[in-house]
Amino acid sequence: MITELFVALSGIDVAAVMAAIPPSCRTAPCSFSVVDIDESAALIELPPYRPRVAVRHLLPSLSVLTDRPYSARFELSTRSAGTSSSWVATTTLGSAVFPALPAAAGGLACDVDVYTTMAPVEEMTLRVRVAAADLRAVLDAPWMATLSVSDVGPLASPDAARAPVRLAVPARSQMQAPPEIAARICSPTSVAMVLEYWSRPEDTPSLAAEMFNAATDCYGVWPAAIQAAGRRGVAGYLLRFPDWSAATWCLARGLPIIASVRYASGELSGAAIAETSGHLVVITGHEGDDVLVNDPAAPTAASVRRRYRVDELRRAWLERSGVGYVLFRPDEIRGG
Questions:
Q1: Which of the 8 DSSP states describes residue 177?
Q2: Mean pLDDT of the chain
Q3: 3-class state of residue 308 by DSSP
Q4: Alpha carbon distance 146, 59 (integer Å)
Q5: Of the candidates 4, 38, 208, which has an alpha carbon nearest to the alpha carbon of residue 131?
Q6: How far apart are CA 328 and CA 274, in angstroms?
Q7: How far apart are CA 144 and CA 237, in angstroms?
Q8: Contact 139, 34 (CB under 8 A)
Q9: DSSP-based three-state secondary structure for 127
Q10: For residues 186 and 196, is the Cβ–Cβ distance under 8 A?
Q11: Where do the domains of the chain lie, and which CATH numbers do they carry?
Q12: Can you give the pTM of this predicted structure?
């Protein structure tokens, strides 16, 4: 599998951003333009992008380092064999009402926050619609927009054993939140753990309330996690990880990964929940044949830190969604 991360940024140190992206997925930052619609809305337009290989999985995100409220929606058009699709939109983040766009058109479809195509596409164009009462202040804040694009090829074989890594990510259990939301907030709880790791602690129920998406009745909309972290000065992006090497690269550089996993009963030994059609965990390191994980579904904070077999975790994560959130402090990332 090949994944590339298409990046546009403003006001964030380019070297710091590149140092937080696995080398196999990096591309040079692209140009962009901001088109004003009115006093409270604008479009961030990125140029057409042609990846190294035709792709079928496309995942956008927007990270704005501001505590000012804003709404955002991603809009994508793809091109293959000389034919372009209509614009297709994701679910809106925030309360703004944007002009209606379809969730599927011309072989391109969006399921809440991730795009897939019926056939591989050779070119894509992303734009981000942003609305805010104080629009100029939001757009003048540091921001980065990203688009993860990947094919659907086989995973690379695991690398030879690497030096162990243990990141000191604080443990939190979602099950210790109020009972009416406890079973639903694996994403906010995972984000809260990583924010505390980056010295930006946040109350888990408050973060969950902020990340809740009313349109989908869901706390786990992936770009909402990136938006919430940005409000606390922590940048981030979404990536479909192409292989385990990209994950170990992040961990070796002090970057925990919030990973989206799916598994049936018996597929993940010692798991905090027996089976799941979608769950978020924080990968905090690796040691030998084990992956070190903070699993928010554990019943108590004391039981959150777990070891899962690397072959089982790779299957539950990389062979299923492969999606991870990478959150980082630009002022603390160097080298890479």
A1: S
A2: 94
A3: strand
A4: 8
A5: 38
A6: 31
A7: 8
A8: yes
A9: strand
A10: no
A11: 3-150 (2.60.120), 165-332 (3.90.70.10)
A12: 0.96
Tokens 């140029």 map to which residue? 47
CA–CA gap between residue 23 and residue 122 (Å, rounded) = 22
Tokens coding 50: 């042609």
CA atoms of 201 and 163, how far apart (whole Å): 29
Which pLDDT tens digit goes with each residue over 44-68?
999 999 999 999 999 999 999 999 9
Residue in this structure with the two tokens 């926050």, named with its chain if needed: 113
In the three-class reduction of DSSP (H, G, I as helix; E, B as strand; rest coil), residue 11 is classed as: coil
Q: Which residue has the tokens 């757009």?
A: 139
Give the position of tokens 């978020």. Answer: 280
How is residue 183 written in tokens?
Answer: 């079973």
**What is the C-alpha to C-alpha distance for residues 177 and 175, in angstroms, rounded to an integer?**
5
Q: Which amino acid is at 302?
A: A
Query: Quick one: pLDDT at residue 157?
Result: 67
CB atoms within 10 A of CB 332: 12
Q: Dig out the tokens for 168 from the structure.
A: 């000191």
Q: How far apart, in whole angstroms, are the C-alpha atoms of residue 295 and residue 106?
A: 39
Look-up: residue for tokens 């994508």?
76
Return the closest-CA partner of residue 187 out of 214, 208, 216: 208
Q: How many helices (H) and strands (E) does the chain have?
A: 7, 19
Helix ranges (DSSP H) in 20-178: 135-140
The span from the CA of 305 to the CA of 294, in Å, is 5
**pLDDT band for position 257 (50/70/90)?**
very high
What tokens were used for 39? 């006093």
Tell me, what's the pLDDT at 159?
Answer: 66
Query: Cα(21)–Cα(324) distance, rounded to whole angstroms?
Result: 12
pLDDT in tens, 258-316: 999 999 999 999 999 999 999 999 999 999 999 999 999 999 999 999 999 999 999 99
Query: Using CA atoms, how far apart are residues 52 and 151, in angstroms rounded to an integer?
Result: 10
Q: Which residue has the tokens 């597929």?
A: 267
The token pair that represents 296 in the structure block: 């928010």
Question: For the CA atoms of the chain, what is the radius of gyration?
Answer: 19
